[in-house]
């Protein structure tokens, strides 16, 4: 049969003829195929070359560009600087200190620049010796439990892995910490030690600032000894010039497009009107408050539970994370500052950096109005630091007031004592100082230049994303107290949040927020027992933990013992989440609920007393159950007392000496079995 479409072959043709015919056919096909392959190969070869060669130059340029842009060495050479002050800052204080040190340099014939380590390639430290009389100073804050600040994380990682010779580098470190925390000044100590290990030369001893004491005084004391050491090392002398030099110039905008004016945004203009993920510190999400209820039944304080709606934000969080919120200052304080200084607060202006090479073009988003700056961008409620008083002194027309301000800004013992009593202990903010010094009337633009930035406030999240994926819960207490001068001071964020009540007509109360990841995590295995200690609002993360353990149980997982030690003042006054906790206990999720009511009896009872009472059970959970321990709340007293109680329990039931028990608990911390989320 003949296949359809194919030519028929005569059956009488001999096999030899057939073979010859096939040979001819194949040779023609071979030539055709070889030509085709050769053509395709030639085309591919040239096409391939073009594909490879053309992108080469742009690739080289794009790789080279960031290196050039991120080189602080090149920038220092270009601008004639020889001192660079890096800062690891979470709340702005280390950045403020770095700016003050870089500004000091000109008094010694040197030129300094403050620098964010996140913006530069720190491996360039090995090249700093290329610059004459060069020095690197590090103002490093410690965050949380001995962690680097967010902007110093990359620098910390680089230091850990670096195998570099820094023998030409001269350095000094000032650390910012808090003695109530377990890992006091861990970051400052590490940077100081590690730079020396890499061969760098320390030209002045490590400074350790303590925010639990007087951080400002610690810094001033260190600074007044640091500069003479620099002078001696480099053979330079003070020029006698004081450092009252403006860093920014004022530009008033009389004819401006209001669409180009910042109204409280943290980064991108109009970012609150046109929200785009991902959301972070420079791009917060505007969350609606869907619930705001008072938690306590009585007492003078106001304890509250808020719920923030994060639907459609793509924000993800885990139990134990922190939510950061950007608050606003009280409008009455802002108005009073405007009135005292005789200023139209709605004037639109910009403060432009006089150093054109600086990465920081403005002290806060500009152009904006004075009202917006004082409401959203500047800290007007904390006592101002001594450098602010020094700069303001020139504007006091009364000689006595001017002398008083200069004295408080000096490094003399008498001046330090006056600053401590009149400003710090009396909790005088900038408004109180202006009220109590009638001749002090600085230009509002200089005041705005000097005041530190208003910082985000962090709260432990009081919910589980397994149960509330589109909502973040906050548990907080409003801060309100009377100062020694008889003024009523109110916490900025808590009082602002207190007034964020969802309205009946459906319009929303909005909170700019973002999530900060934490190491405060439930055990990987749900079957691992947990011991949670959290008096007062320290219960917040444990509400999330308990919700998550309940959810895991519903999923059919084996959930270990869940033990809570909670404390409040009085059972019928401030027992937070009483109904929820009772329900969790009834459902068997919360296996133990131990509550200390400190003021319901003659002798005060705290959570550590209940731990001692149940010490045998506590030890069994730790020793046999491999339980994880979590402590949340006050660092100054509670966390320390609880830790000492664990030392006692371990010593007694583990048959250990006190030093051995301390070592045992420290090892629990290292292994992630003893976690802290504390504040002072």
From TrEMBL:
Q: Which organism is it from?
A: Chaetorhynchus papuensis
Per the record, what is one GO cellular component?
Answer: cytosol
**One GO biological process from the UniProt record?**
response to hormone
Asked whether the keyword Secreted is assigned, the reply is no
Pfam families xref list? FAD_binding_1, Flavodoxin_1, NAD_binding_1
Gene expressing this chain:
Por
Transmembrane parts of this sequence: 25-46
Q: What is the recorded name of this protein?
A: NADPH--hemoprotein reductase
Name the Gene3D superfamilies on file.
3.40.50.360, NADPH-cytochrome p450 Reductase, Chain A, domain 3 (1.20.990.10), Nucleotide-binding domain of ferredoxin-NADP reductase (FNR) module (3.40.50.80), Translation factors (2.40.30.10)
